[in-house]
Amino acid sequence: MDATQLLVTLAGVAAIAWVNWYFFVAGRGAPAAIATAPTGPQEVPIVVDGGYAPASVAVQSGRPVRLLFDRRDNGSCTEEVVLPEFGIRRFLPTGKVTAVEFTPRRKGTFAFTCGMGMIRGKLIVR
Amino acid sequence: MPDSATIDVSGMTCAACSARVERALKRAPGVTDAHVNLVTAQAMVGFDPAATSPDQLAAVVRATGYGAEVPLPDRTAEEELDQRDSARAREETELRRKALMSLAAAVLTMLFSMPLAHGAGPGALVDPAVRLMQPLSHALESVAPWLYRLPGDALRWLLLLLTVPVVFWAGRHFYTRAWAAFRHRSADMNTLIAVGTGAAFLFSLATTVAPGWFRSRAVPPDVYYEAVVWIIALILLGNFFEARAKGRTSGAIRRLMGLKPATARVRRNGQDRDLPIAQVVAGDEILIRPGERIPVDGTVLEGTTAVDESMLTGEPLPVTRGPGDSVIGATVNGTGAIRMRAARVGRDTVLSRIIALVREAQGSRAPVQQLADRVSAVFVPVVISIAIAAAVLWFDLGPDPRGLHALVSAVTVLIIACPCAMGLAVPTAVMVGTGRGAELGVLIKGGAALQRAGEATVVVLDKTGTITEGRPAVTAVVPSSEFRVPSATSFELGTRNSELAILRAAASLEVLSEHPIAAAIVRAARERGIDPPAATGFAALPGHGVTGMVDGVSVAVGNPRLLEPLGIPAATDLVDRAAGLEEGGATVAWVVIGGSVAGLIGVADPVRPSSAGAVQSLRAMGLEVVMLTGDRPRAAERVGREIGVDRVVAELLPEAKLAEVRRLQAEGQVVAMAGDGLNDAPALAQSDVGIAMGTGTDVAMESGQITLMRGDLRGVRDAIALSRSTMRVIRQNLFWALIYNVIGIPVAAGALYPILGLRLSPAMAAAAMAFSSVSVVSNSLRLRKAVSKE
């Protein structure tokens, strides 16, 4: 193995490590957006633009939740949002804010994902 | 009770703007709390509904100089579908245009690349596509020899010129979306395409601009413009077909929505007027002419007609509907004009509830999807890692020029990997399957119910209301041999037929009674065209029967105990018949006319004509069919034999039905149970799949995991057959999506090269990838025709 090969190999290993760190590890500690409305539905605006921002949302159980999905991109990947545990699959028109309403009755962590489950967000019910 | 509202605010450009709007709102009367978000351009306001309203709050915002709109609380299903359809149509047009342009560019790049490949690039020997192209290249050379005389550098610049619009216009969204996803630490199909084509394009750009630099390092200045253009063209083409196919998955719900009539002819203030359907309220009197669609749910007031309910219940034969009968909105009136009273309108109609239920089901997830989800969540980063690893291996171990081989194999891996097929495998099948169910009159609550029903091994049927009609009917009218129709007065004018005379006399009394058996007798009389005259001197003897005068003749109807106090001996020839009828599960009513026994009427809950056939097909599907009933064993056995069930369990109280279901489950069976939800609710809830039998308008849609609009056993068969077909398609899709990637990715990485000397070109990878996701959606679309309607 010559020096170039060694260099390329090391660069490859580093690249693989970085990819896995970036996608799997780095985002984990991101704080959850907390719905703070004292009365009425707990509203959380979520920007949809190739992903969800915030990707982690905390709400209280037993009170109605209104997630406001503001879709900015026009890729077909994000055109639907799915909350499987709540039986919701909603189409999000580009350039509009779509409200998704439900009342969580159970505590726990639930997913909200795109129609194919590739882009994910977390709903923490406390 | 405080309320809250969201107001869309437009025109805000900075934090100062939103602060200003917020202050104005907080000062407004009745406002308890206000928060304005600049990013979402929305104000969220808590307010006292007694003091103000969302519209007034919008006016407050407008007064500050910004635009304000109160958004509709929620979109209706129809609006959502319209939005989806128009978005889909736009996407299709755009994809078609881009795909066609890219394909044209791809053909040109192929032509201009041939002279370059002539000089044998690195891929030439191993790439089957290049080998296939060789005869074409020779043909091209004889047609346009000047092309082959152009210097390589000129050809490369020409190719760059062709590639730039494809990358920066047609394929632009791959890069922008990949970048957007990347910023959110997520990765999708766009990431793979963007990285793959981006790497190939940038490398080619470098060799085009500075070929000398590469030559001096013994690397041929090859370009991969052809691959870049073909990848983008083929993926766009695949996306176009996929968008078209996906549009069809919601076809069933679209058809259901199309059933809603736009107007209704309503009588208001003594005048018939055509009103938009939204203005019809419960209690309205509506005229429906022959051939028209019934606008809302209600009851027939006047007129008799045959109604085609097939679009909702799957029942192919029209059903007769007359005064007092319920009719369902969206069904089609036959040849008679009817007048009806609206009972349920808007969201409460059966049709609206079906649509809501199907939509919810389509949003749900089948447990089987967990596998796909787990793979999808890690898919793209893992594929990128594999691509890097492949590049490194080619560089370290591969033949020269190593750098080029490394690049090509990494690009091929990125392009062949198809996360879309995985993501589409389950949802598209659930979507089409539940939609098809609605067409068949089978409402499936969601993916979990679908999966469970597909796995069922035993079908438990409650007898009453499931195997039988669930409402007693006259099964026999037996006149005594001694009975003569009284020749007196109008009694004789009613009818001379002794059977009809008995029925007519009995119905005249029973029309005043409320017993379910009485209702059966009256209905039987009416069905035979008899209009029972009103009896006089009616008296009910509780536990015995009823007596009265019909056309001046004394009549009594009841059980044998009624005869004793009247001092009438039971006609001997009828005692045996009565015993026989009772044996068969019927209740016998004795009819006394003019002081002597005229005959008897047998009333029983008749077995539905379709039950035997349905049980037979359930058994043919390999299911064990068990009948549960509270009836006496002999009557139960007789019904069981008649319809051919495997096993009959009789004399069960509701709790015992529950125990029986538990017992079967303990044996390891997956139990699907069908019942009307009345006396079998606990057992239905305990079963793995509860199938609720609906009867027209009184559909208890929420009670079962599957609800049958048409209350007969053919629906049970359809539900299980459809669930099995859907699960089969899901498994095929998942298998295909997994196996495609499991085989495709290593082959693209060059796993076959050391053995067969074979590797894929990036363009071939793009074709495979495009085909794989289209094939999954197409496979799901096959379910549109699953389970034929009869």
Q: Which pair of chains forms the biggest interface, and how many residues does each contribute?
A: A-B, 59 and 74 residues
| Strands of chain B, total number | 26
Quaternary structure type: heterodimer
Overall body shape of chain A: elongated
Task: Explain what the structure shows.
The complex is a heterodimer of chains A (126) and B (790). Chain A is built from one helix and ten strands; from the N terminus they run H-E-E-E-E-E-E-E-E-E-E. Chain A has 126 residues and is of the alpha/beta class. Chain A has two domains: 30 residues; 95 residues, Sandwich (Immunoglobulin-like). The mean pLDDT of chain A is 82. With 790 residues, chain B is α+β, with helices and mostly antiparallel strands. Chain B is 54% helix and 17% strand. Chain B is built from 30 helices and 26 strands. At the A-B interface, helix 1, strand 2, strand 3, strand 5 and strand 7 of A face strand 1, strand 2, strand 3, helix 3 and helix 7 of B.
